[in-house]
Each structure stands twice: as C-alpha cells, then as structure tokens.
Amino acid sequence: MALRDPHHCPAAGLSRLVNAVIWPGFVGATVPGWLDRALRDGLAGVVYFSHNIDPDVPGQLPALSAAIRAANPSAVVGVDEEGGNVTRLQSRGGSAIPGAAVLGALDDVEVTAAAGRAIGGLCRAAGVNLAIAPVADVNTNPLNPVIGVRAFGSSAALVSAHTAAAVAGIQAAGVGACAKHFPGHGDTVADSHLDVARVELTLAQLREHHLPPFQAAFDAGVAAVMGAHIVVPGLGDAPATLNPRAGALLRDLGFGGLLVTDALDMAAVRVTVGPGEGAVLALLAGADLLCVGNPLNAYTTGRDDEACYTEVFDAVYSAVSSGRLPVEVLQAAAGRVAAFVQWSQEASRCGEGGACEDGEVDWVDVAARACRVDPGAGAVALAGPDAVVTLVDARTAPNMAAGATDNFLATALLEGYEVCVPDVSLLSAEDLSDLVSAAASQGEPVLVLVDALSSPMQQATLAAVAAVAPRALCINAGLPPEPGTATGTALSTVHCHGFSRVSAEAVVRLLTPAR
C-alpha cells in the first residue's frame, strides 16, 4: 500500500523511504557498520571517493561493491569518473583516459564515444552503476575556477555533440551516465565547493548558450542529471539545487529521469542553510537523490561519515513527520531512484561477449594529437636519455573537484630522463633564477608547468624563467587562449588541455626525439 500519511506510517516504513533517497560517502575500503545497517534499511547506495579505493589490494573495489549489494541489492553505486583531471578509480596514477577539453580540442565524436565506453568499462569492472559524468557545462568564462578543462569547450554546439557522444559511450557499457551541472556551471567565477556561485545571465542567454548540451544529453537517453549549486537570477535567489523553478525547468525540457543533487556539503548549502535543511529544500525543489558529499573534505570538520549521513536523514525524516515535506514528494523521488535501478539492471546486460568493448585505443596518441604548440622564443626538444630535465611546477592551489594529485609530468619524464623538480614554494625568486640559469647554461632542458595562464603567481614564475632561460618551454595544463592570441608568456607553449597521466605522457611523447 502506498504511504499517504506519515503520522500513520510505521516508523520502519518511513525510515526505509527516507533512506531510499540518500546517497552518502563513507570512510574506508570496507563497509563500516553504520553503512551496512543503513543499506539493509533501504539506503539508496553510496558514492565512492579516492579514499575508498586501495589499488594495492587486487579486487578490493569489486569486493566492496559486492558487499554493498549484499546489504542492498538495489544500491546505486556512483563515482566521479570524468577522465582527465577528475578521476577516482585511477586517482593514484592519474587517468589513462583523456578529459573533456582534450576530446573537445580533437573534436572527433567517435573518439569521445570511445572514451565514454572506456569510462563505462572502468566503472562496470569496479561494480559502479552510475558514472557522475559527463560534464555538460559550456565553459564560456575563461576565469572559471572549477570547470575549465573539465568541459568539452566554450561552444554550445561543440559541447552538445560531445556530451551526447559521451553519454552514449558510457551507457553502451551498461553504466548510467549523469550529465552535470544543470542548468550550467560554465559562466561562473566562483567555485561552488567554496562559495556561492552566480551565473549573471538572463534566462534567454542561458537557454541559448548553456542548456543545449543538457538537451542533447536528454535526447541521447541520459539516465541521470546532477544539479548545480549556482544562483541564476532569472530563476530566483536560491541555488538551482534548492530552487523549484530550476527543477521545473529541467522537467519542462522533457527529462524524466533521475535528478541528483551536487554534494550537500558544498558552500552554497553548507554555509547557508546547512546540509540537513538543504536536503529538505532539494527534495521540495524536485531532486530525487541526495548526494551527501565527501566526509574527508577539509571543510567537513567535527563530523564523521555517519554524522554526515544522519544529519541529512534526521532532517528529511523530521520534515516528512511534520508534514512540511509531503510524503508523496518523497515517494516520487524514491520511485525515480527505483526506476534507475531497474534501468541499470537491464542495461548491465549490455556488453556480454564483448559487444560494448573497443579494441586497444592509444589514448596517449589521442591526447598528443589534441595538443597545440604556440611558438615563442624557440621550443626545446628533450635531449637523449642522459639529459637532466628541470621541471618547474608553477601551479598553485589544486582544483577542488580534482583534488591534490601527484606530478604526473614528472612521473612520465622519469621513464626516460633524470628529472630535477625544485620546490618553488621554498625558493626565493633569486634562487629559482639561479637554478634555472645554471641548467640552461649547461644546455639542459627546462620546462615550466602551469595550469592557469592568467594567474599572476604563475605568470611571475614564467617571467622569471623566461628572463634567464628564453628557450625553456611552458607546459600549459589549463585552458589555452584563443588561437592567434597572446599566451601571456614569451616562452613557447604546449597546450595539453588538462593534467592527467595520459596528457603528461602525450607531452613527453611530443617532446622526445624518435629513437
């Protein structure tokens, strides 16, 4: 019998219904006791983060997924797996699959579909049935601190074509795709992890420049969409995730699938209404699945993983019990979660016998073909294997979505060269100049790694290097300027459209003379 009145609903029934829309993270590489209990009480599933994955233990992640489904066979297991800069399944070594900006620069939708199938294959092997990808944002603001190279580009038409291809590829592997971040995070100058981001566009501008890729995803049959914590003045003052007008806009565009919130621990929710109240408002705004967030984020202070979950559970339970959140709203959300699970179970049959598999794709070659070299004072090619390469890492704070990573370029160089990576944070400008000057005077290659050509700090490092080593080479892992426009440095620059293992290996391949 359908639940109608929470006051006449057995507590156990209401508990399962509330759990059916909550999607938390957790700490550890095994199922903690609280999570096992919640899953057995109908918890929707879990989101994996890097700390849940132990690559030193073969089979650990599939076993973890199996344990989760032993507690709840209908669990939705999700992971941020975009390829390129943002990976969880390959976080230690870096993604072997090019990111969106690489694929957009190459502009071959068949390659993008193949990348989607590769992402879907990684997820499927791990027991994941919802990939929180692709990014459907159109990065129209070059100062955007959180999207950037995670987007296919700055053109609605290009992003639409590649979003549809990525969706088709991921779902061909029997894994749900989740297009993000509706209604478009591409024209912001704030990172919604850390601040309230605004999109200062009219609704007409939003419809013209930012909604088309989401429509393309809908037309491609995307299983899920993730909402964004962005304020669109034309829709009101609330972040889209908590805004009924944004939810209505999504449904008016014809999407009937699963609407997932961005993490409720992000600043637009955390420092305003809080995750618990945010969860209630998100459900009232039309969300179906409440992504609680990463319990190990630096800003998640004073709470453990279970407390992060119970804060959301208690708020939703209380709102339903009081009548503020109609039980029918909760039932509708839980119904769409259940519909996704049914779709996922049917889609998982895809690929049996290799039907969804590609042959070996040389992803390093793909990433290398997408690179662009802007001439400067004269590019360097790396010398023979006895060369000592000085690699100046000028990057500053890591992108919150990607998190801190190893220096993949240094790792790729170490395959064939001796590498010197000075700690720029510990060197004075004079000491750095002396070190670089000494390397250049001995004919040793000097590389400067940046990820934001507009950053004053990175610009200062580039200028300091150029003054003493004009034949040094800038490796830009961020957005490139428009072709024909100044890069902001006198150095020759390789634009590789992202920072991942595959892009780092592509740069080294480009710079290494044939042997």
What features would you describe in this structure?
- With 515 residues, this protein is an alpha/beta fold.
- The chain has helices at residues 11-19, 33-40, 60-71, 100-106, 109-126, 156-172, 203-209, 212-219, 244-252, 267-270, 275-284, 305-322, 327-347, 363-370, 408-413, 429-441, 456-468, 501-511, and strands spanning 22-23, 45-48, 76-79, 130-131, 176-182, 197-198, 224-227, 230-231, 258-260, 290-291, 372-374, 388-393, 418-420, 446-450, 473-476, 492-495.
- The strands form four sheets. Strands 2-3-4-5-7-9 form a six-stranded parallel sheet, with helices on both faces. Strands 11-16-15-14-12-13 form a six-stranded mixed sheet.
- Helix 17 links the parallel strand 14 (446-450) and strand 15.
- Helix 11 (275-284) crosses helix 12 (305-322).
- It is globular, with a radius of gyration of 24 Å.
- It starts with 10 loop residues before the first helix and ends with a helix.
- The mean pLDDT is 91.
Structural features:
globular, six-stranded mixed sheet, 18 helices, 39% helix, alpha/beta, 515 residues, 16 strands
Secondary structure elements and their pairing?
Blueprint: H1 11-19, E1 22-23, H2 33-40, E2 45-48, H3 60-71, E3 76-79, H4 100-106, H5 109-126, E4 130-131, H6 156-172, E5 176-182, E6 197-198, H7 203-209, H8 212-219, E7 224-227, E8 230-231, H9 244-252, E9 258-260, H10 267-270, H11 275-284, E10 290-291, H12 305-322, H13 327-347, H14 363-370, E11 372-374, E12 388-393, H15 408-413, E13 418-420, H16 429-441, E14 446-450, H17 456-468, E15 473-476, E16 492-495, H18 501-511
Parallel strand pairs: 1-10, 2-3, 3-4, 4-5, 5-7, 6-8, 7-9, 12-13, 12-14, 14-15, 15-16
Antiparallel strand pairs: 11-16
